[in-house]
């Protein structure tokens, strides 16, 4: 049965143009940007008596309901004037219709008839897997009406390849690293950031090489507007509890994200406070490593329609799936102890109806395992038992505090200012299983950083041009201290940027995409080591343009072509063998990308496609423990993502990524690398899955993920083939009015997942994924 979809929005938010799009899917002639101070709500309405009662239009000073195809008749059930919270406005709209509402989550409500009520949809319903571009999620039950609210006060760049995941099951997707199986041309990494389109997320190096050189990641990770420090997302994983969405943008994102985004960007947004009280509590158990998990959330208003808060906490406790031999470890190498606590406050004062303030604070800490490294020759034993090798644990914490102010200057123009501060304290201990003195080491990395970003978003209703103008500043002070590993010294970095990005409607369905970023980055580094020192004082000023065309064939079918540039700065390092200081250059990429989007069968089916070609200059890699600039390299590929809501209860989804990479020209001293593929660049990734829901509250689903083989290091004889695995995940749940019971299985086929593997004089080692695991959880909600 076709589900009709209606959009209610604040006029302050500007054009509806591109809500629910991805991969260049511009919906409407108004361009490729959507941002504002209000909240946008999507009404998913199944035909029936309840839906007919809701098909009303209410004239209001700043809110309206429109159809995707045409405006509804002006038949008012309740006249609205003034400023209302979403829940209050909805209740007034329902006056005289015989309906009322029940909150079921953040800005989400279930409409029920009086006096009989329909079964409640639990808060934080799992496994919806709604991706940007999917227009008709299924809820099971032909008479159920659900109103889903989505904040749009965050920038949406819709002419990039982007996968947006919402309502993720926090058991199946416990970490950012678990979403890699849903994204084409993205592969996991046990100890570093995921690789996107063959670009290693953590950059050209990891571990001690990063600390001594200050090399940068290639994938920007941004949580609630603040960039993560280099090691923050692995050493202190934020988890996935109480997150609203995860966006994975593939390809260089220099125009809007700037720093550390030559390979892509991952933005994670936590849920906002609500204007009605609700809460949830979660507890779970997983067989692999005897892990226990918890989560709790409480959200509601302190002052009606003016001040609301949201408090959440989560954690995972247990042991690693790696078995550590020996009894002489100076620490427990298999311990996993991770927790996150967060508080958010939303202030919308009546005295300033166009003003909004969001204050966010968080504390994260992680103790124990983070490398997930097994020793050879048989990695399938998941053992670390080579006495010649060391492993490390992390005892790290991150504290963040941010404040975001937004003010709607006019119906077309909104200004926002973000300030954030991050305190990062990472402590590492290393040893071998013998606990021998020459293997033991300690290292501390202490960092304070500040982010300031001012944005002006211009998005007039039915305007021919819209876009964003931004100013950005970032600084970082870092101190590395190691009493016995011999790496000590300060590092200071600061970045200034001015950027703009927007779309101008030309004629018919044709629009021009244009943007640019001017960025100045400076670094001072004075890190001393036992065998040399890095004394680097340099800066880079980059002009990063972007341009293209967007054509809308219809409100639901579009195509775009863009050309954009990205970069990563250079730095200085110490030759590992000979001890002398050297510098390596910045790397740059030019990306050509053709993207398309279509929705068919009453918008129940959506398809996104991206065809890209990248040319790299001075591509950075670590060869023979030395940072090397590879003069020329290229990558090209295809990505397809589809979703089909077969029935109201059955949803099918899938994606495929094809990738071909090549080092076209190598330095003379590393001629063996010429013609090789990039590191961590499988030629094929593939995902297919389904979710089935029933009106009784029962649901189940599964995912199959395939990753092709790849080399984990472009080095002469040291890299071992990784990838080449297929995994199966399953989940089932029963949702009642006040609780949800879930069961899940990960890696059902017990496939050996090798992310990265190398051989050395001491033997072979690999970072491996989790073997088969079963789990269950109970969640209570009100």
Automatic annotation (TrEMBL):
Keyword Transmembrane helix: no
Pfam families: Plug (PF07715)
GO cellular component entries: cell outer membrane
Membrane-related topology note: Multi-pass membrane protein
Motif TonB C-terminal box location, chain numbering: 765-782
Domain of life: Bacteria
Domain Secretin/TonB short N-terminal as annotated: residue spans: 63-114
Compartments it resides in: Cell outer membrane
InterPro entries from the UniProt entry: Beta-barrel_TonB_sf (IPR036942), Plug_dom (IPR012910), Secretin/TonB_short_N (IPR011662), TonB-dep_rcpt-like (IPR039426), TonB_rcpt_CS (IPR010917)
Any one GO BP annotation for this protein: iron ion transport
Record's keyword terms, sorted: Cell outer membrane, Ion transport, Iron, Iron transport, Membrane, Receptor, Signal, TonB box, Transmembrane, Transmembrane beta strand, Transport
Signal peptide start and end residues: 1-25
Keyword Transferase belongs to the record: no
Family: Belongs to the TonB-dependent receptor family.
Protein name in the entry: TonB-dependent receptor plug domain-containing protein
């Amino acid at each position: 049965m076709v589900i009709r979809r209606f959009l209610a929005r604040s006029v302050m938010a500007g054009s509806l143009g591109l809500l629910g799009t991805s991969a260049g899917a511009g919906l409407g002639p108004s361009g490729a940007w959507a941002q504002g101070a209000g909240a946008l709500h999507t009404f998913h309405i199944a035909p029936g008596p309840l839906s007919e009662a809701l098909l009303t239009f209410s004239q209001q000073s700043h809110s309206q309901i429109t159809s995707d195809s045409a405006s509804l008749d002006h038949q008012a059930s309740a006249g609205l004037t003034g400023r209302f919270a979403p829940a209050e406005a909805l209740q007034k709209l329902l006056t005289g219709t015989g309906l009322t509402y029940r909150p079921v989550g953040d800005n989400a409500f279930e409409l029920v008839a009086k006096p009989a009520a329909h079964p409640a949809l639990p808060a934080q319903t799992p496994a919806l897997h709604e991706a940007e571009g999917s227009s008709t999620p299924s809820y099971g039950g032909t008479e159920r009406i659900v109103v889903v609210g989505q904040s749009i006060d965050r920038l949406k760049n819709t002419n990039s390849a982007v996968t947006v995941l919402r309502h993720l099951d926090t058991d199946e997707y416990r970490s950012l690293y678990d979403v890699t199986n849903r994204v084409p041309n993205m592969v996991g990494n046990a100890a570093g950031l995921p690789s996107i389109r063959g670009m290693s997320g953590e950059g050209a190096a990891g571990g001690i090489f990063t600390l001594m050189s200050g090399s940068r990641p290639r994938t920007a990770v941004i949580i609630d507007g603040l960039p993560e420090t280099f090691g923050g997302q692995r050493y202190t994983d934020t988890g996935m509890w109480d997150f609203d969405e995860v966006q994975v943008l593939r390809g260089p994102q220099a125009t809007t994200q700037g720093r550390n985004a030559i390979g892509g960007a991952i933005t994670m947004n936590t849920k906002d406070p609500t204007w009605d009280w609700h809460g949830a509590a979660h507890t779970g158990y997983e067989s692999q490593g005897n892990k226990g998990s918890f989560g709790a959330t409480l959200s509601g208003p302190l002052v009606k329609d003016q001040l609301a808060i949201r408090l959440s906490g989560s954690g995972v406790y247990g042991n690693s799936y790696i078995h550590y031999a020996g009894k002489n470890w100076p620490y427990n190498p298999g311990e996993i102890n991770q927790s996150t606590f967060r508080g958010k406050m939303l202030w919308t004062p009546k005295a300033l109806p166009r003003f909004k303030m969001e204050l966010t604070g968080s504390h994260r800490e992680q103790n124990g395992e983070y490398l997930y490294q097994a020793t050879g020759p048989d990695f399938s034993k998941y053992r670390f038992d080579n006495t010649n090798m060391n492993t490390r644990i992390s005892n790290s914490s991150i504290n963040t505090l941010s404040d975001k102010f937004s003010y709607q200057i006019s119906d077309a123009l909104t200004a926002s200012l973000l300030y954030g501060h991050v305190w990062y304290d990472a402590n590492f201990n290393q040893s071998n299983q013998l606990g021998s003195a020459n293997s033991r080491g300690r290292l501390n990395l202490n960092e304070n950083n500040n982010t300031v970003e001012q944005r002006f978003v211009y998005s007039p209703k039915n305007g021919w041009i819209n876009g964003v103008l931004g100013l950005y500043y970032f600084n970082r002070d870092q101190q590395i201290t190691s009493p016995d590993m011999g790496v000590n010294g300060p590092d200071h970095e600061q970045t200034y940027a001015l950027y703009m990005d927007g779309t101008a409607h030309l004629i018919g369905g044709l629009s021009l995409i244009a943007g640019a970023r001017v960025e100045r980055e400076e670094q001072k580094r004075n890190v001393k080591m036992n065998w040399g020192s890095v004394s680097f004082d340099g800066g880079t000023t980059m002009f990063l343009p972007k341009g293209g065309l967007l054509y809308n064939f219809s409100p639901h079918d579009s195509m775009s072509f863009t050309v954009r540039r990205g970069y990563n700065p250079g730095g200085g390092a110490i030759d590992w063998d000979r001890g002398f200081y050297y510098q390596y250059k910045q790397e740059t990429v030019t990306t050509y990308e053709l993207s398309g989007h279509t929705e068919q069968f009453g918008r129940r089916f959506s398809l996104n496609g991206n065809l890209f070609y990248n040319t790299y200059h001075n591509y950075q890699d670590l060869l023979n423990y030395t940072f090397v600039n590879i003069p020329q390299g290229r990558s090209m590929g295809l990505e397809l993502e589809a979703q089909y809501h077969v029935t109201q209860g059955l949803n099918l989804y899938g994606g495929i990524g094809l990738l071909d990479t090549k080092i076209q020209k190598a330095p003379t001293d590393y001629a063996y690398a010429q013609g090789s593929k990039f590191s961590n660049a499988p030629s094929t990734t593939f995902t297919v899955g389904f979710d089935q829901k029933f009106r009784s509250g029962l649901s189940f689903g599964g995912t199959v993920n395939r990753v092709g083989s790849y080399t984990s290091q472009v080095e002469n004889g040291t890299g071992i083939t990784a990838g080449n695995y297929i995994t199966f995940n399953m989940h089932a749940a029963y949702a009642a009015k006040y609780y949800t019971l879930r069961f899940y299985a990960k890696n059902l086929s017990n496939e050996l997942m090798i992310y990265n593997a190398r051989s050395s004089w001491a033997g072979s080692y690999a970072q491996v994924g989790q073997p088969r695991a079963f789990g269950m959880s109970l969640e209570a909600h009100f």
